[in-house]
Amino acid sequence: MPKLTETYAKKLPQAATGTQKHWDNEVKGLVLFVGKRAKTWYFQKDVGGQTRRILIGRYPTISASAARQTALGSG
Q1: Radius of gyration for the alpha carbons in the chain, expressed in angstroms and rounded
Q2: Which sequence spans correspond to the domains of the chain?
Q3: Cα angle for residues 10, 30, 73 (degrees, 5° grid)
Q4: What is the top-level taxon of the source organism (predicted)?
C-alpha cells in the first residue's frame, strides 16, 4: 500500500472496468476509488461490526492532503 499523494493520484489511469481501490499506508481507512469516469476519496471504518464508508469528495477537486486531513478528523 503506497502513501496516497497528489503525484500518485494524478498518475493513476482510469479503470477500464469496475472500480479499483487504492489504500493509504499512513492514514488507516483513507481510500481512493478509481472508476471509468472518476477518482473519489472515501474514509472507511468499521462501526459495530459493519463497514461504514464516508464520502470525502472527488479528485482533483479534493487534493490528497485535504482528503488525508478530512480522514484524520473522521477517525
Answers
A1: 12
A2: 6-74
A3: 115
A4: Bacteria
Q: Are 30 and 53 in contact (CB under 8 A)?
A: no
Phi, psi values for residue 33, rounded to 5°: -90, 130
Q: Are 32 and 59 in contact (CB under 8 A)?
A: yes
Q: Which residue has the cell 486531513?
A: 69
Task: For residue range 7-35, list pLDDT tens digits in order.
Answer: 999 999 999 999 999 999 999 999 999 99
CATH number for the domain formed by residue range(s) 6-74: 3.30.160.390
pTM over the 0.70 mark: yes
